[in-house]
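Assess the record.
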Amino acid sequence: GVVRALHFGVDDMCRVGQALVDIEVPEEEAENVLPTGNTEVEKVPVPIQRQGDVSTATSPGNMTSSAAPPPGNAATATTSLTPPTPAAPVKEKREVLTTPAVRKLANDKGVDLSLVPATGKGGRITKEDLLNYVAAPPPLSAEVPPTPLMGDFVSSPMVTTIPTAHIWNTSPTSQVGAGTADDTIVPIKGIAKVMVKTMTAAQQVPRFTFHDEYSMDKLVQLKKILKEVGQEQKTKLTFMPLLIKAASHALTEFPMINAHVSSDCTTITYKAAHNIGIATDTPHGLMVPNIKNVQNLSILEIARELNRLKTLSENNKLSTDDVTGGTFSLSNVGAIGGTYASPMLVVPEVCIGAFGKIQTRPAFDEDGNVFPSNSMCVSWSGDHRVLDGATVARYSNSLKRLLEEPIFLLFHLK
């Protein structure tokens, strides 16, 4: 036949059932070429190598033609993008008639379809033919071509046998490329399964994000002083207890942020207790235990409770009470790295914050002088059904004031 039109180019994507190429064939050969029934099939010529000559397959993406080299000299067929003319068609070719699904299965198993006996209608290779061949491949003949590389074919009159390893891999899990490891299927269960449920629920909530940057210079100085106190009390003190306490105090000004919304979004409950959840990365997955009644705890008590929850999380021994009842959540993503984030809500809570890494950056004082400044990026996500951006921005500003001037935080401590 003659290729009259190519509907797709190299690397183009087409839907199943769309025509790839128009091929004109003589009427007397049409009945042998065109498939019958509703099954979509492909006709792809396969190269046949014989002693002393070279034949190459033609396809829309790789039109090749070459003459036989003189005996005793190995020659490589040259590749050209010019299709052969009808006056000089390639005679030595063997056509494979099968469906794309069978062709893909053969490619996955490393099987040359030209070797598979066909039992289907009109000489088609069925899936059963392929599976039967995989179970018991026939002996190879001298006329079977070696696996081509990059569309080039090498012919030599001395070639009489083909090693089995060149075209057949008897391993049922064979893959392309030597040394490739097998895929591993892992069931989603335990904590991972819970995360699937909670994140799917969170994705259903329309949310917005708000970002800001806080100066942490004075809080860094305060933390150095309090760290010594924590060591005297045998308690590890990080920035997180200070951030949690400041976030709790800011919630007293904005009770609508420390709230739960009903599943049908018909009521919102302002929570009296500040049960602040802390997103925790553990070897077992993401956990969000919460510290109960933060509004009534000191910074030292928050630090001890935070250390307790962290230890239990790492050992996968958190109780049901530790992971339920949260009213507001925070994520310390900066402990791992990064600046800004888009945290997912912990439904039915309506707001969550993420603290980035504290970084030292150049800043300007009132006189325009450059000095090193400690800053932290902060990200907030809110349930846009019950919260607006202005409310979250005002809450963020309140927290920012407490962290940039810690004296105000100490002034309000009970």
About this structure: Confidence is low (pLDDT under 50) at residues 36-83, 87-93, 141-176. The longest helix spans residues 217-232. The first strand starts at residue 2 and ends at 6.
